[in-house]
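> forwarded from #structure-qc
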């Protein structure tokens, strides 16, 4: 048997080793940063957090702020449904969470979902206090802010952002839930004006978890019933000014430009992906990510898009800083390739 003195000595040597190993295990829960690359983070629908779990939303943004340098985080993308009922109380939760990103100097490309519109968040109108809690003055503080929809200078839920990373120029376009026809006119003009930039579209309802775009002209069978794959059940679908679902957005906007590279959306759980070729031959990667139907409204899961230094590969991983664990859902960890830079 080892003497007491020897056991004490060995124990003293092992303690730092054990702590190091435990630390590595703890760090391993989050995706390892990619050396020489950069990261975009996606905040899926936060509506249940704003309503029932107000500590979860800031837990997400605090983790992003604390790890921004580690991941070379360039932008946070929020796909909408920021709130559940479009109430001031819920918007205040969101504003406090995003203040943590602002304090860390991290810009956010954020837009509105159906629950952010109309009384009680029922999307019967486009009434929203979004611009009150995410004002234009705050957007203008970011050197990467490009502008807002030219016909509505008082609203900020339709915006674009310009930045450079990974050896190419980028344009982020943020479009409201079911964007109106005039919004697509504006978005086309912005994409054309910045034809030398790779475009990332952030919008709320675009891709379904069955890897098909929302499409009012398509149907699927569910228990011998024909179910429409569109979004026409929402009041806004019949509102003046038009209403465009995922397939509309693809045909009228995304597929028309050689510089579109990525579409990020939410609205439905949990995740899906689709690659489609535009009219110019560029392959656009489209994704949906949403955890609102999960336990406690999603338990803080967010998505990290890590862009490799080769300028081609992007690694996708969903992670919860609240649980400190990766997602166990299918399709939440994969890689895709970017089209060539314009």
């Amino acid at each position: 048997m080892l003497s007491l003195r020897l056991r004490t000595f060995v124990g003293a040597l092992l303690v730092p080793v054990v702590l190091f190993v435990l630390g590595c295990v703890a760090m391993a829960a989050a995706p390892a940063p990619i050396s020489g690359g950069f990261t975009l983070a996606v905040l899926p629908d936060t509506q249940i957090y704003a309503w029932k779990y107000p500590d979860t939303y800031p837990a997400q943004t605090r983790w992003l702020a604390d790890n921004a340098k580690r991941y070379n985080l360039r932008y946070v993308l929020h796909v909408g449904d920021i709130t559940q009922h479009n109430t001031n109380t819920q918007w205040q939760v969101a504003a406090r969470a995003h203040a943590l990103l602002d304090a860390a100097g991290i810009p956010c490309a954020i837009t509105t979902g159906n629950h952010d519109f109309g009384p009680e968040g029922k999307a019967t109108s486009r009434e929203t206090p979004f611009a009150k809690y995410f004002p234009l003055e705050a957007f203008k503080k970011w050197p990467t802010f490009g502008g807002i929809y030219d016909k509505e200078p008082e609203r900020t839920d339709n915006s674009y952002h310009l930045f450079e990373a990974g050896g190419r120029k980028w344009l982020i376009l943020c479009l409201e839930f079911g964007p109106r026809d005039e919004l697509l006119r504006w978005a086309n003009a912005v994409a054309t004006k910045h034809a030398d930039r790779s475009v990332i579209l952030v919008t709320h309802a675009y891709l379904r978890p069955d890897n098909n775009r929302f499409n009012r002209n398509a149907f699927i069978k569910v228990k011998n019933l024909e179910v429409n794959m569109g979004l026409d059940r929402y009041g806004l679908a019949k509102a003046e000014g038009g209403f465009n679902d995922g397939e509309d957005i693809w045909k009228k906007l995304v597929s028309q430009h050689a510089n579109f590279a990525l579409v990020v959306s939410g609205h439905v759980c949990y995740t899906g992906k689709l690659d489609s070729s535009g009219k110019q031959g560029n392959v656009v990667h489209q994704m949906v990510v949403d955890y609102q139907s999960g336990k406690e409204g999603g338990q803080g899961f967010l998505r990290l898009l890590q862009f490799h230094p080769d300028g081609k590969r992007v690694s996708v991983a969903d992670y919860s800083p609240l649980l400190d664990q990766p997602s166990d859902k299918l399709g939440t960890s994969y890689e895709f390739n970017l089209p060539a830079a314009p």
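QC bot note: The chain has a mean pLDDT of 92. The two ends are 71 Å apart (CA to CA).
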